[in-house]
Amino acid sequence: MERPGMGLLDRFRAQPKWKNADPAARAAGVEELPLDAQDVLVSIARGDVDPAVRLAAVRKVLDPVVLADIARSDADAGVREGANEVLVDAAIGAYEGIQEAESMAALAGLSDPKHLMAVAKTAALETLSRAALARLDDIKALGSVARRSTHASTRLEALGRISDHSELASIALRSDFKDVAVAAVERITDRAEIEAVAARAKNKAAQRRARGMLRALEEAYGTPAAGAAATAAAAAAPIDVFGRQRLELCRQVESLAASSAWNEMSGRLDSVIAAWDGLGVSGDAEIEQRFESACGTVRAKLAQHDAELAERQRVEARITEGLAARDAICQQVEALDGDEAEQRLQEARVAWASLAALPERAAARAEAVGRRFEAACKACESRHRERIEREGRRARSEQLCRQVEDLAATAQFPDVRPRWVQIQKAWASLSVVGAIEDTLAARFAAAHSRLQAAEAAAEEELARRQRENLTRLEHLCDQLETLARTGELSLKDGERGLRDARTALDDPGPLPSRREREELTERLGSAHAALVPKVRELREIDEWQRWANAGVQEELCRRAEALREVADPAEAARQLAELQARWKQVATAPREKSQSLWLRFRTAADAVRSRSDQHFAQQAEEWAANLARKEALCQQVEALADSTDWIRTAEEIKRLQSEWKTIGPVPRGRERATWERFRSACDRFFTRRQQDLARRKEEWAANLLKKEALCAEAETLAESTEWDSAVARVKRLQAEWKTVGPVRRRKSEQVWQRFRAACDRFFERYQQRGQIQAGAALAEREQICAELEGLVPDASTEAVSVLPGDLLARARGAWDRWCQLDTRGGIAREHREQLEERLSAALLRLAERFPSVFCGTDLDPEANRRKMEELCAKVEGLSPAGSPVPEPDAAPVALLARQLKEALAANTMAGRPATDAIARLRQLGEEVRRAQAAWKRLGPAPPGVGALLAERFQRACSRAIGRREQHRDPVADSGTR
């Protein structure tokens, strides 16, 4: 496209492709523009008439301020969307090397919620993700960010800002992230939604949490099969009582601590605190402390945010002040004009340089105003140059007018013709650049007319002179041709004729026409060429015999004799060759000196040559030896080129390469071939080694993935308590580890230490499994005791937080769990006794506090006392009072002998058969064991009575067991031992 005001010469200049009239060509030109041509790209993105060209330029613009302006104001929707896409890519960090401040500036230019949502979900930096989230208000957008954001803090902050129950259920169902899915489940209060999450949630942790909440509902309200009323109550009742509500309030405050919605944080904190106060005083000090700690964190975060906001306001004020100062300087520069513009511009540049640097967050705006300042400076300089050029053109026009007037005054043609042509060209170039004043144009035209008249007169004079010069040259040609034909030519006449011919050829003078000039030049050249050999022959005969080379030859002889003193034979040979070449040039000498000088030169040359020949022979031997050594190295390298012992072979080849460098030159013509042979063998080995290294790297990478998978599985098993299956699995992993190949050396030790640490951790825990199980058993028993103690109301209050039916069920459930744990054992006796005392004390306090609840149940102390007395009487009946009890201190050998004696007596003295006695003893043992098992299932007895009855029962059991041991068949026992 032709610009307005374009000059004639500008139309023939090559235009850049991005200025082409064809939109497709302009778009291709934009694609070829470099990224540093931002001014051109911005002008195209804002001003081109074709949307496709603008879009191509927008995709290469780097300034986020410009992109944001285009995204808001461009008439084409595709261009606006393209600008938004570039801003989104810059905000999420898609471009390599982009800084956080640049990403923040790009984020500031976005306004569409879908773009902000994309940044919140996919930004590489957490600060960018949370900054984008802070600008979102739509519930659906917040839900999408909570489900899919790559940053945990952003997900949890988005979840904390959602109060819609359907959106919470959607997050719990559809999110792949454990943290946000479980947190969403814990905020759901509708049972149907919990059941849906337990059945269909994508995240397994969310499913488990929902199922746990359903089990808690069933324990609190019964299963759906327990009755229609209970089912309706469970479905209609909220999941949480006051403790659950307090836990939810704690979670809300903790989510506020992770949030960045500063405008809503203070009001939401006050509303949560008001809701907490409305629940009354909590008896749980831990939840109170947790709530206060979370509130303190939020207040501290609000205080920090206020301080940061004040600092940002201060920085923003500083930025505003700095930008205002820069804007004022820009306006001043944009208005500069006149004679003082250059000086004022320099002052503006000094003032600009003295401005304090803006903070980093205003880097984009500072860059934009900097570009404005530079553009204003360039425009000012352009105006100043144009003004200077106008003044220069006027001064130049006046100068040309004076010059042409001076030429017209002298009018010495043809001497003034070149100058006149130059002045005309200069005047024409001024006319092309700009307009010339009418007065100056009139002056130039008048002088030009005078010169034309003078030129016509000069041309007439020149024609006269040309005719006279033509006659003179024709006469000279006749003379020279006569001299060339004569046989008796003297050297003097010949040299004079040559001089006249040369002078005429060099300056033939003015002639009427070119044809006549060419004809005369050809005649003069022919005559000159005919005279030259004759004059040369005369000169050789006359002067060459008088001008000998004797002095030069003597100098060459002296220099040849001096070569005997040169220490380096090679250098002496080189200089001798130069002297011989010079001797050939001055070989002619006077006859009386020619032979002696030649003999003198040859003698010196022979002496130098003999020494040089010996040196070159020795050098040839050395070079041949070097060639043999290098060929031997070539053979060694070629033998190693196909080796697979990479490390040792590489070291050996490097050693051979070092040795190669120490060997001197080889005979000429063999250097390149020998070196190519050695290098090709080295290259073949190192190429093969590189290929093998690439293959091994792939194997190392695959082995590393296998070993990392084994490490991950071992780390999972390290905390397992399924000892038998886990120990087998760990041993299998260790065996599998040995089958995996090697990995990269710098990774080998690291991944091995990781695997070994996981295995060592498991086996350390495996060796301490008894202590771990004992600790778990002790913790379970302490939890049961604490649970029962928590059911006992405080002496200072009559309020009961648990319904009587729930109280009995919870106390009985705790007792049943205790009994199941009691069968497993696993803790020390002293701890067991202490915990049994705690358990009995808690149950007795409950029975004492709620006698109507526990009366007649298996936890009624009076009923348990009666059962204990019955068991004592039953066991005491198994061993009558007159039955002898074995002495506890009797020796085992004596006891065995006595039992054997009694058994023999019983068999020989018509007693019952031994088999009947053994059966009765076995029945006695079974009865005692059943009584002991029944005793363990009994609940607590009244204080004081229980201990006495326990001692009585223990004595009775001891007597019964002692009786059984006394009457045991020693022969049968000895056979079983």
Task: Tell me what the structure shows.
With 977 residues, the chain is an all-alpha fold. Among the domains are: 322-389; 391-457, no CATH class; 464-544; 550-617; 630-693; 696-763, no CATH class; 768-858; 860-977. The protein has 41 helices and no strands. The longest helix is centred in the first third of the chain and has 50 residues, at 285-334. The protein is elongated and about 180 Å long.
Primary descriptors:
single chain, 977 residues, mainly alpha, 41 helices, disordered N terminus, disordered C terminus
Q: Gist?
A:
The chain is mainly alpha-helical and 977 residues long. It has 41 helices and no strands.
Oligomer: single chain
- Strand fraction equals under 5%
Helix content: over 70%
**Count of beta strands:** 0
Q: Write down the overall mean pLDDT.
A: 77
Task: Summarize the helices and strands and which ones pair or pack.
Blueprint: H1 8-11, H2 23-32, H3 38-47, H4 51-58, H5 64-73, H6 77-92, H7 100-108, H8 113-122, H9 126-134, H10 139-148, H11 152-160, H12 165-174, H13 178-186, H14 191-200, H15 204-221, H16 228-236, H17 242-257, H18 262-278, H19 285-334, H20 341-354, H21 363-410, H22 417-433, H23 438-485, H24 491-506, H25 514-544, H26 550-562, H27 569-585, H28 591-640, H29 646-662, H30 671-717, H31 723-739, H32 745-767, H33 769-791, H34 804-824, H35 829-849, H36 851-854, H37 861-878, H38 892-908, H39 914-937, H40 945-966, H41 970-976
